[in-house]
Structure formats: structure tokens, C-alpha cells
Amino acid sequence: MSSTEPRPGAIRVLVGLMIFQGFSGVVGGCGLTFDATGSAVGLDRKWLEGSPFRDYLVPGVILLSGLGIGPLAVAFGILRRSAWAWFASVLAGVALIVWIIVEVLVVGYISHPPLQLLYGLVGIGIVAVTTLAPVRRHLKASGSPG
Question: How many domains does the chain fold into?
């Protein structure tokens, strides 16, 4: 596939999911980092009972960096067809799924608002779209810029 050919639709979907997750992670991570009580983003401190955290600072930093800046970097790598982009995309999706599973195990499932469900589906969507043949071909094509 030459650089002048249009990107497959699945690549556009994948980049959209990464940007959505990235911006969400940056906004949520900043909110938790700057207000570790969680009240600025509507989280209750009592949800941390039984967890290794006394406040939301560490989860906020993880959210900001790993689930915010990370997916934005992956989106950039996908658009550049970087050699690492396919693996990083799978990793970003799995990281989001693991984050949601751990969150549900630690604080329980919170159905209103259904953010855990939404972001769990985003993580599954990232992994699913990344494994589609057009995405694999596009990102693993020989001669792609790195």
C-alpha cells in the first residue's frame, strides 16, 4: 500500500478510538492528579477502601500517562505507520480492559454513569479492530515509514 492510497476505514476507527481514550484519560487523569480527593470528577473517596491507595493521586497519574498520553502516542504511531504501532495498539486496548477489570474488582461495578461499561467496550473495540486483517496489513506493510 503506497502512502497515497487512502487508509482503510478500520484504521480510521482505530485512530478515533485511540483519540477518544487518550483525551478521556488525559482529562480524567488531570482531574485526579490535581484533586486527589476525586471530588472534582465525581468520585467518592470511600470507593478506595480496600485498595492500596489512600487517595486518587497514583491512579490519576496512571490514568493520565498510561491511558491518556499513551493512546494519543499510539494514534500518532498508527497514522505514521510506525513499526511499533500494531503491538502498542493491542497493548493499549489490553491495558484499558485490565484497568476496568481491576477497577470493578476494587471499587465494584458502578452503573450510573455506566463509564466502566463504556470504557470496557472501548478497550475491547481497540483490541478487536487492531486484529482485523486490513489493520494488520496496513500497519505491517513493508516499506512503511517508522
Answer: 1
Contacts with 7 (C-beta within 8 Å, 6 or more apart), sequence order: 138
Full domain range(s) for residue 83: 9-140
Is 33 domain-assigned?
Answer: yes
**Does the CA dihedral 47-58-18-127 come out positive or negative?**
negative
Residue 2 lies in a domain: no
Task: Give this prediction's pTM.
Answer: 0.88
Write out pLDDT tens, residues 8-65.
899 999 999 999 999 999 999 999 999 999 998 888 888 888 888 999 999 999 999 9
Give dist(CA 62, CA 56) in Å, integer.
10
Burial of 5 (0-12, 13-18, 19+ CB in 10 A): exposed
Helix (H, G, I), strand (E, B) or coil at 127: helix
Does residue 3 lie within any of the structural domains?
Answer: no
Neighbouring C-alpha atoms within 13 Å toward the C-beta of 141 = 18
Let me know if residue 78 belongs to a domain: yes
